[in-house]
Write a structure and sequence with these properties.
The protein is α/β, with parallel strands linked by helices and 374 residues long. 39% of the residues lie in helices and 13% in strands. The strands form 3 sheets. An 8-stranded mixed beta sheet has the order 1-7-6-5-4-2-3-11, sandwiched between helices. A two-stranded antiparallel ribbon has the order 8-9. Strands 10-12 form a two-stranded antiparallel ribbon. Helix 4 links the parallel strand 2 and strand 3. The model has no long low-confidence stretch (mean pLDDT 97). The chain binds pyridoxal-5'-phosphate (PLP).
Length: 374
Protein backbone atom coordinates (compact mmCIF):
# COMPACT_ATOMS: atom_id res chain seq x y z
CA UNK A 1 0.00 0.00 0.00
CA UNK A 2 1.34 3.44 -0.83
CA UNK A 3 0.51 6.46 1.30
CA UNK A 4 0.05 10.14 0.42
CA UNK A 5 2.27 10.87 3.40
CA UNK A 6 4.84 8.08 3.85
CA UNK A 7 6.24 7.47 7.33
CA UNK A 8 9.84 8.25 6.34
CA UNK A 9 11.10 10.26 3.38
CA UNK A 10 14.90 10.38 3.60
CA UNK A 11 16.68 13.22 1.83
CA UNK A 12 19.99 12.18 0.31
CA UNK A 13 22.61 14.44 -1.32
CA UNK A 14 22.18 15.14 -5.03
CA UNK A 15 23.55 12.39 -7.26
CA UNK A 16 26.03 14.78 -8.94
CA UNK A 17 27.69 15.38 -5.56
CA UNK A 18 27.82 11.69 -4.69
CA UNK A 19 29.05 10.95 -8.24
CA UNK A 20 31.87 13.44 -7.74
CA UNK A 21 32.76 11.86 -4.38
CA UNK A 22 32.65 8.36 -5.84
CA UNK A 23 35.13 9.42 -8.53
CA UNK A 24 37.49 10.57 -5.74
CA UNK A 25 37.10 7.18 -4.04
CA UNK A 26 37.94 5.35 -7.28
CA UNK A 27 40.91 7.69 -7.80
CA UNK A 28 42.29 6.91 -4.36
CA UNK A 29 41.58 3.19 -4.93
CA UNK A 30 40.46 2.97 -1.29
CA UNK A 31 36.89 1.69 -0.69
CA UNK A 32 36.84 0.72 2.96
CA UNK A 33 39.25 0.02 5.91
CA UNK A 34 39.52 3.52 7.39
CA UNK A 35 40.15 5.38 4.13
CA UNK A 36 40.36 9.16 3.62
CA UNK A 37 36.57 9.67 3.58
CA UNK A 38 36.06 7.66 6.78
CA UNK A 39 38.84 9.52 8.59
CA UNK A 40 37.43 12.89 7.51
CA UNK A 41 33.89 11.86 8.50
CA UNK A 42 35.08 10.57 11.86
CA UNK A 43 36.76 13.95 12.55
CA UNK A 44 33.66 15.80 11.39
CA UNK A 45 31.57 13.84 13.90
CA UNK A 46 33.84 14.82 16.79
CA UNK A 47 33.86 18.44 15.59
CA UNK A 48 30.08 18.34 15.58
CA UNK A 49 29.76 16.82 19.08
CA UNK A 50 32.34 19.05 20.74
CA UNK A 51 35.87 19.35 22.02
CA UNK A 52 37.45 16.46 23.88
CA UNK A 53 35.49 13.69 22.19
CA UNK A 54 36.57 10.78 20.01
CA UNK A 55 34.47 8.97 17.46
CA UNK A 56 34.59 5.44 16.08
CA UNK A 57 32.45 4.99 13.00
CA UNK A 58 30.69 1.68 12.33
CA UNK A 59 28.81 -0.06 9.53
CA UNK A 60 25.62 0.22 11.62
CA UNK A 61 24.52 0.93 15.19
CA UNK A 62 23.88 -2.73 15.96
CA UNK A 63 27.55 -3.68 15.53
CA UNK A 64 28.43 -0.48 17.41
CA UNK A 65 26.28 -1.65 20.36
CA UNK A 66 27.95 -5.08 20.23
CA UNK A 67 31.33 -3.35 20.29
CA UNK A 68 30.39 -1.05 23.17
CA UNK A 69 29.32 -3.83 25.52
CA UNK A 70 32.41 -5.90 24.58
CA UNK A 71 34.92 -3.05 24.83
CA UNK A 72 33.47 -1.55 28.03
CA UNK A 73 32.70 -4.77 29.95
CA UNK A 74 34.30 -7.69 28.11
CA UNK A 75 32.51 -11.02 27.69
CA UNK A 76 30.11 -12.08 30.42
CA UNK A 77 29.57 -15.64 31.60
CA UNK A 78 25.78 -15.49 31.37
CA UNK A 79 25.23 -14.76 35.07
CA UNK A 80 25.51 -10.95 35.18
CA UNK A 81 22.88 -8.43 34.11
CA UNK A 82 22.75 -5.12 32.31
CA UNK A 83 19.93 -2.74 33.16
CA UNK A 84 18.07 -1.75 29.98
CA UNK A 85 14.58 -0.41 29.27
CA UNK A 86 12.16 -2.76 27.54
CA UNK A 87 10.85 0.27 25.65
CA UNK A 88 13.68 0.38 23.13
CA UNK A 89 14.78 -1.23 19.87
CA UNK A 90 15.73 -4.92 20.16
CA UNK A 91 19.31 -4.32 19.00
CA UNK A 92 20.32 -3.09 22.49
CA UNK A 93 19.09 -6.11 24.47
CA UNK A 94 20.48 -8.35 21.69
CA UNK A 95 23.94 -6.77 22.07
CA UNK A 96 23.71 -7.53 25.80
CA UNK A 97 23.00 -11.22 25.13
CA UNK A 98 25.57 -11.56 22.33
CA UNK A 99 28.19 -10.49 24.87
CA UNK A 100 27.11 -13.01 27.50
CA UNK A 101 25.01 -10.77 29.77
CA UNK A 102 21.34 -10.85 30.68
CA UNK A 103 19.00 -7.93 30.00
CA UNK A 104 17.34 -6.70 33.20
CA UNK A 105 14.32 -4.83 31.91
CA UNK A 106 13.19 -1.66 33.65
CA UNK A 107 10.08 0.43 33.05
CA UNK A 108 9.67 3.91 31.56
CA UNK A 109 8.09 7.12 32.77
CA UNK A 110 4.65 7.44 31.13
CA UNK A 111 5.06 11.15 30.37
CA UNK A 112 8.67 11.46 29.23
CA UNK A 113 8.80 7.90 27.78
CA UNK A 114 12.36 7.74 29.14
CA UNK A 115 13.72 4.86 31.27
CA UNK A 116 12.53 5.04 34.88
CA UNK A 117 15.49 6.01 37.04
CA UNK A 118 13.64 4.89 40.18
CA UNK A 119 13.63 1.32 38.80
CA UNK A 120 17.36 1.37 38.08
CA UNK A 121 18.12 2.81 41.49
CA UNK A 122 15.92 0.25 43.24
CA UNK A 123 17.69 -2.56 41.34
CA UNK A 124 21.09 -1.21 42.37
CA UNK A 125 20.26 -0.53 46.05
CA UNK A 126 18.56 -3.91 46.41
CA UNK A 127 22.00 -5.36 47.12
CA UNK A 128 22.03 -7.64 44.12
CA UNK A 129 25.59 -7.98 42.92
CA UNK A 130 24.94 -9.17 39.39
CA UNK A 131 24.42 -5.74 37.77
CA UNK A 132 27.39 -5.10 35.47
CA UNK A 133 26.21 -1.94 33.77
CA UNK A 134 23.41 0.22 32.41
CA UNK A 135 22.45 0.50 28.75
CA UNK A 136 20.25 3.58 28.73
CA UNK A 137 18.20 4.41 25.66
CA UNK A 138 17.54 8.02 24.75
CA UNK A 139 13.99 7.23 23.69
CA UNK A 140 13.42 8.13 20.00
CA UNK A 141 16.74 9.99 20.14
CA UNK A 142 15.32 12.55 22.59
CA UNK A 143 17.85 13.67 25.21
CA UNK A 144 16.94 12.36 28.68
CA UNK A 145 16.17 15.34 30.96
CA UNK A 146 17.57 13.35 33.91
CA UNK A 147 20.87 12.48 32.23
CA UNK A 148 22.89 14.04 35.08
CA UNK A 149 21.04 11.95 37.66
CA UNK A 150 21.74 8.84 35.57
CA UNK A 151 25.43 9.70 35.48
CA UNK A 152 25.44 10.24 39.26
CA UNK A 153 23.65 6.94 39.82
CA UNK A 154 26.18 5.09 37.66
CA UNK A 155 29.09 6.73 39.48
CA UNK A 156 27.58 5.98 42.90
CA UNK A 157 27.31 2.27 42.13
CA UNK A 158 30.46 2.16 39.99
CA UNK A 159 28.77 0.72 36.92
CA UNK A 160 29.34 2.01 33.38
CA UNK A 161 26.55 4.04 31.79
CA UNK A 162 26.36 3.27 28.06
CA UNK A 163 23.77 5.16 26.01
CA UNK A 164 21.91 4.00 22.91
CA UNK A 165 21.09 7.32 21.22
CA UNK A 166 20.54 5.72 17.82
CA UNK A 167 18.15 8.30 16.38
CA UNK A 168 19.59 11.17 18.42
CA UNK A 169 22.40 12.60 16.31
CA UNK A 170 21.52 16.31 16.23
CA UNK A 171 19.51 16.24 19.50
CA UNK A 172 20.34 18.26 22.60
CA UNK A 173 20.00 17.68 26.32
CA UNK A 174 18.12 20.21 28.48
CA UNK A 175 21.32 22.14 29.22
CA UNK A 176 21.88 22.50 25.43
CA UNK A 177 24.86 20.13 25.35
CA UNK A 178 24.64 17.67 22.50
CA UNK A 179 23.34 14.16 22.79
CA UNK A 180 26.54 12.14 22.35
CA UNK A 181 28.35 13.69 25.30
CA UNK A 182 26.97 11.59 28.18
CA UNK A 183 27.99 8.41 29.98
CA UNK A 184 31.00 6.29 29.07
CA UNK A 185 29.92 6.59 25.43
CA UNK A 186 26.87 7.11 23.24
CA UNK A 187 25.86 5.18 20.13
CA UNK A 188 24.33 6.67 16.98
CA UNK A 189 22.70 5.07 13.97
CA UNK A 190 22.99 6.65 10.54
CA UNK A 191 20.52 4.21 8.98
CA UNK A 192 18.44 5.51 6.07
CA UNK A 193 15.42 5.82 8.39
CA UNK A 194 17.15 8.08 10.96
CA UNK A 195 17.31 11.88 10.77
CA UNK A 196 21.03 11.71 9.94
CA UNK A 197 20.88 9.18 7.10
CA UNK A 198 23.80 7.74 5.15
CA UNK A 199 22.28 4.35 4.19
CA UNK A 200 23.86 1.92 6.67
CA UNK A 201 26.19 3.39 9.25
CA UNK A 202 26.72 4.33 12.86
CA UNK A 203 29.18 5.75 15.35
CA UNK A 204 30.22 5.66 18.98
CA UNK A 205 31.26 8.91 20.64
CA UNK A 206 33.34 8.94 23.83
CA UNK A 207 35.73 11.08 25.87
CA UNK A 208 37.87 7.99 26.44
CA UNK A 209 40.64 7.87 23.81
CA UNK A 210 41.62 4.29 24.76
CA UNK A 211 38.04 3.11 24.42
CA UNK A 212 37.88 4.70 20.96
CA UNK A 213 41.00 2.74 19.94
CA UNK A 214 39.49 -0.52 21.24
CA UNK A 215 36.23 0.20 19.39
CA UNK A 216 38.14 0.66 16.14
CA UNK A 217 40.06 -2.56 16.74
CA UNK A 218 36.84 -4.42 17.53
CA UNK A 219 35.35 -3.52 14.15
CA UNK A 220 38.59 -4.63 12.45
CA UNK A 221 38.52 -8.27 13.66
CA UNK A 222 40.07 -7.33 17.02
CA UNK A 223 43.40 -6.65 15.30
CA UNK A 224 46.06 -4.53 16.94
CA UNK A 225 48.41 -3.28 14.20
CA UNK A 226 51.57 -5.36 13.97
CA UNK A 227 50.31 -8.03 16.38
CA UNK A 228 47.09 -9.59 15.05
CA UNK A 229 43.97 -10.31 17.06
CA UNK A 230 44.29 -9.07 20.64
CA UNK A 231 40.57 -9.00 21.38
CA UNK A 232 37.30 -10.45 20.19
CA UNK A 233 36.13 -8.52 17.15
CA UNK A 234 34.19 -8.63 13.95
CA UNK A 235 34.01 -6.75 10.67
CA UNK A 236 32.09 -3.58 11.40
CA UNK A 237 33.82 -1.04 9.22
CA UNK A 238 32.13 1.89 7.50
CA UNK A 239 32.57 2.03 3.72
CA UNK A 240 34.05 5.08 2.02
CA UNK A 241 30.92 5.80 0.00
CA UNK A 242 28.77 5.94 3.14
CA UNK A 243 31.32 8.20 4.85
CA UNK A 244 31.21 10.47 1.78
CA UNK A 245 27.41 10.65 2.00
CA UNK A 246 27.78 11.49 5.71
CA UNK A 247 30.15 14.37 4.97
CA UNK A 248 27.65 15.78 2.45
CA UNK A 249 24.74 15.33 4.87
CA UNK A 250 26.62 17.24 7.56
CA UNK A 251 26.85 20.31 5.31
CA UNK A 252 23.08 20.81 5.52
CA UNK A 253 22.20 18.89 8.68
CA UNK A 254 21.48 21.89 10.93
CA UNK A 255 18.83 23.05 8.45
CA UNK A 256 17.42 19.52 8.26
CA UNK A 257 17.03 19.34 12.05
CA UNK A 258 15.51 22.82 12.25
CA UNK A 259 13.03 21.86 9.53
CA UNK A 260 12.01 18.69 11.38
CA UNK A 261 11.56 20.60 14.64
CA UNK A 262 9.27 23.10 12.90
CA UNK A 263 7.04 20.25 11.69
CA UNK A 264 6.83 18.63 15.14
CA UNK A 265 6.05 21.97 16.79
CA UNK A 266 3.46 22.64 14.08
CA UNK A 267 1.64 19.41 14.94
CA UNK A 268 1.67 20.23 18.66
CA UNK A 269 0.33 23.75 18.09
CA UNK A 270 -2.59 22.57 15.98
CA UNK A 271 -4.06 19.82 18.19
CA UNK A 272 -5.65 19.89 21.64
CA UNK A 273 -2.88 19.59 24.25
CA UNK A 274 -5.38 18.06 26.69
CA UNK A 275 -5.72 15.08 24.33
CA UNK A 276 -2.35 14.81 22.57
CA UNK A 277 0.70 14.43 24.80
CA UNK A 278 3.98 15.09 23.01
CA UNK A 279 7.03 14.02 25.04
CA UNK A 280 8.97 16.94 26.50
CA UNK A 281 12.31 17.27 24.73
CA UNK A 282 10.90 16.26 21.34
CA UNK A 283 11.26 19.81 20.02
CA UNK A 284 14.95 19.97 20.99
CA UNK A 285 15.62 16.62 19.33
CA UNK A 286 16.47 15.66 15.77
CA UNK A 287 12.84 14.43 15.50
CA UNK A 288 13.11 11.02 13.85
CA UNK A 289 9.30 11.10 13.97
CA UNK A 290 6.75 12.81 16.23
CA UNK A 291 5.53 10.43 18.88
CA UNK A 292 2.35 11.39 20.66
CA UNK A 293 0.37 9.78 23.48
CA UNK A 294 -3.42 9.48 23.51
CA UNK A 295 -5.37 9.21 26.79
CA UNK A 296 -6.75 5.72 26.06
CA UNK A 297 -6.06 2.70 23.86
CA UNK A 298 -9.50 3.01 22.24
CA UNK A 299 -8.81 6.60 21.20
CA UNK A 300 -5.36 5.62 19.90
CA UNK A 301 -6.94 2.96 17.69
CA UNK A 302 -9.52 5.46 16.43
CA UNK A 303 -6.93 8.13 15.64
CA UNK A 304 -4.55 5.61 14.06
CA UNK A 305 -7.21 4.28 11.71
CA UNK A 306 -8.31 7.82 10.81
CA UNK A 307 -4.70 8.65 9.91
CA UNK A 308 -4.28 5.49 7.80
CA UNK A 309 -7.60 6.10 6.04
CA UNK A 310 -6.44 9.63 5.24
CA UNK A 311 -3.31 8.26 3.55
CA UNK A 312 -0.98 9.08 6.44
CA UNK A 313 1.45 6.29 7.23
CA UNK A 314 1.49 6.60 11.03
CA UNK A 315 3.08 3.76 13.04
CA UNK A 316 3.47 2.50 16.57
CA UNK A 317 6.97 2.60 18.13
CA UNK A 318 8.61 0.89 19.95
CA UNK A 319 6.04 -1.86 19.71
CA UNK A 320 5.88 -4.54 20.78
CA UNK A 321 8.19 -3.60 23.65
CA UNK A 322 11.24 -5.88 23.77
CA UNK A 323 10.04 -7.95 26.79
CA UNK A 324 6.92 -8.81 24.75
CA UNK A 325 8.94 -10.16 21.79
CA UNK A 326 9.35 -13.97 21.85
CA UNK A 327 13.18 -14.00 21.95
CA UNK A 328 13.21 -11.87 25.11
CA UNK A 329 10.04 -13.10 26.82
CA UNK A 330 12.01 -15.07 29.42
CA UNK A 331 14.38 -12.22 30.29
CA UNK A 332 14.13 -10.79 33.79
CA UNK A 333 11.77 -7.89 34.40
CA UNK A 334 12.75 -5.75 37.33
CA UNK A 335 9.24 -4.38 37.72
CA UNK A 336 5.82 -5.03 36.23
CA UNK A 337 6.59 -2.77 33.25
CA UNK A 338 3.08 -1.33 33.53
CA UNK A 339 4.24 2.07 32.25
CA UNK A 340 5.73 0.43 29.18
CA UNK A 341 2.52 -1.55 28.50
CA UNK A 342 0.42 1.58 28.93
CA UNK A 343 2.56 3.65 26.56
CA UNK A 344 2.68 0.90 23.91
CA UNK A 345 -1.13 0.80 23.94
CA UNK A 346 -1.57 4.58 23.63
CA UNK A 347 1.26 5.88 21.44
CA UNK A 348 1.38 6.89 17.78
CA UNK A 349 4.45 7.83 15.72
CA UNK A 350 3.59 10.55 13.21
CA UNK A 351 5.60 11.05 10.02
CA UNK A 352 8.01 13.98 9.98
CA UNK A 353 9.87 14.80 6.77
CA UNK A 354 12.53 17.37 6.16
CA UNK A 355 10.81 20.29 4.39
CA UNK A 356 7.40 18.64 4.65
CA UNK A 357 4.82 20.45 2.54
CA UNK A 358 2.04 22.35 4.30
CA UNK A 359 -0.43 20.12 2.43
CA UNK A 360 1.11 17.01 3.97
CA UNK A 361 1.20 18.62 7.41
CA UNK A 362 -2.41 19.70 7.04
CA UNK A 363 -3.42 16.16 6.11
CA UNK A 364 -1.85 14.84 9.31
CA UNK A 365 -3.34 17.53 11.56
CA UNK A 366 -6.83 17.20 10.03
CA UNK A 367 -6.79 13.44 10.59
CA UNK A 368 -5.64 13.88 14.20
CA UNK A 369 -8.44 16.32 14.92
CA UNK A 370 -11.09 14.27 13.09
CA UNK A 371 -9.93 11.07 14.82
CA UNK A 372 -10.58 12.52 18.27
CA UNK A 373 -13.91 14.15 17.49
CA UNK A 374 -15.72 11.01 16.27
C1 LIG B 1 17.61 2.23 14.77
C2 LIG B 1 18.00 1.81 16.13
C3 LIG B 1 19.02 0.85 16.32
C4 LIG B 1 19.66 0.08 15.18
O1 LIG B 1 20.41 0.87 14.32
P1 LIG B 1 21.05 0.22 13.00
O2 LIG B 1 22.00 1.26 12.51
O3 LIG B 1 19.92 -0.03 12.04
O4 LIG B 1 21.75 -1.03 13.39
C5 LIG B 1 19.40 0.55 17.62
N1 LIG B 1 18.80 1.13 18.68
C6 LIG B 1 17.81 2.04 18.54
C7 LIG B 1 17.19 2.67 19.75
C8 LIG B 1 17.37 2.39 17.26
O5 LIG B 1 16.37 3.29 17.13
Amino acid sequence: MSFEVPFIRPVFPESRLIGYDFDRIVESNWYTNFGPMERKFSEAITDYIGEGFHAATFNNATSALLAVVQCVLGSGDGTRSIIVPSFTFAAGPAAIEWNGYRPLFIDIDVTTLQPLIADAEAALVSGRTDVAGILLCNTFGIGNAEINQWQQLARRFEVPLMVDSAAGFGSRYDDATRVGTAGVCEVFSFHATKPFAIGEGGAVVTRDADLAVRLREFQNFGFTPGIGATALGLNGKLQEINAAIGLRQLETFDDAVASRQVIARGYAERVDPAVFGFPPGLFASSVCFASVLLPTHALREQVLSTLLDAGVEARVYYAPAVHAQPRFAAAERFSGLSGTESVVSRIIALPVHQNMTSAAMGRVVDALNRGTSK
